[in-house]
Amino acid sequence: MDLPQDVLDLGDRVFGLLEDGLDEEAEPELRTLLRQVERHLGRDAPGTVELYDVLGGVLYRLHRLPESEAVHREALTRYRRSLGPEDPITLACARNLATALVMRGEIEEGTTLLEETFRLLTDREGPDDPDTLITAKTLGSILFGHYDRPRGLALLEDTHARCLRLFGRDDELTLDACSDLAAALWESDRHTEAAQLLIGLFQDYYRLAGWDHPLTQQTRERLFRMGVRVN
């Protein structure tokens, strides 16, 4: 079923706000869009459930974690029903829910869900699939911070190496993996390696986004806290 033009126009407006980082302004209109799409397409239609997942991410970024968890749970239930439990879209939603659970302090449940998601993605899509690597990066950071430092660090190192090989150093996933690995190396008292990674990351952000970009400045501040000055 095609959506009416007014619903399509609302969708364009909502995603325009999200692209501009205006989550707080987008959230109420996103809820309106979700209700309208659900009415036209049905509860379990992929387009409807995708909006649930998007809403969960917006609520997560707004630090409204209980609401984010509830919305992601609803999205995951619907995806499992309509697409099946092992579909890549379902598994990406499971990863989002697991992250929200960990951030809420429900670490055991979130980690268990993330471990299962990582296993299914590795078996289905392979270890080099972008969704697998995103999940590996998230799982590595959580394991390092809460359960198993050696395994978490090894997973972060492997993920960063795969991203470099597959996508190059300028890819967003590679940059994110580098940032997480540097933090884990620093906490593991491998300070020289951590600083070298962050210096390279700073140079990459500066080259790609410019001096004033928040990620450039955040990385510069991290280096300053390590005792490294960059100009």
Description:
It is a single chain. The chain has 231 residues and is mainly alpha-helical. It has a domain at 1-97: Serine Threonine Protein Phosphatase 5, Tetratricopeptide repeat (Alpha Horseshoe). It contains 11 helices and no strands. α3 (46-61) packs parallel to α5 (88-103) and α5 (88-103) runs antiparallel to α6 (107-125). The termini are far apart. The mean pLDDT is 92.
Tell me the layout of helices and strands:
Elements: H1 5-19, H2 23-41, H3 46-61, H4 65-82, H5 88-103, H6 107-125, H7 130-146, H8 149-167, H9 172-187, H10 191-209, H11 214-225
Helix pairs in contact: 1-2, 2-3, 3-4, 3-5, 4-5, 5-6, 5-7, 6-7, 7-8, 7-9, 8-9, 9-10, 10-11
What are the defining features of this structure?
231 residues, mainly alpha, Serine Threonine Protein Phosphatase 5, Tetratricopeptide repeat, 81% helix, 0% strand
The fraction of residues assigned to DSSP E strands is under 5%
**Based on DSSP secondary structure assignment, what is the total number of beta strands?**
0
Distance between the termini: 56 Å
CATH topology (fold) name of the domain at 1-97:
Serine Threonine Protein Phosphatase 5, Tetratricopeptide repeat
CATH class value of the domain at 1-97: Mainly Alpha
* Helical stretch tally: 11
Task: Tell the overall outline.
Answer: globular
What would CATH call the homologous superfamily of the domain at 1-97?
Tetratricopeptide repeat domain
Provide a quick synopsis of the model:
This protein has 231 residues and is an all-alpha fold. The protein is 81% helix and 0% strand. The chain starts with a helix and ends in a 6-residue tail after the last helix.
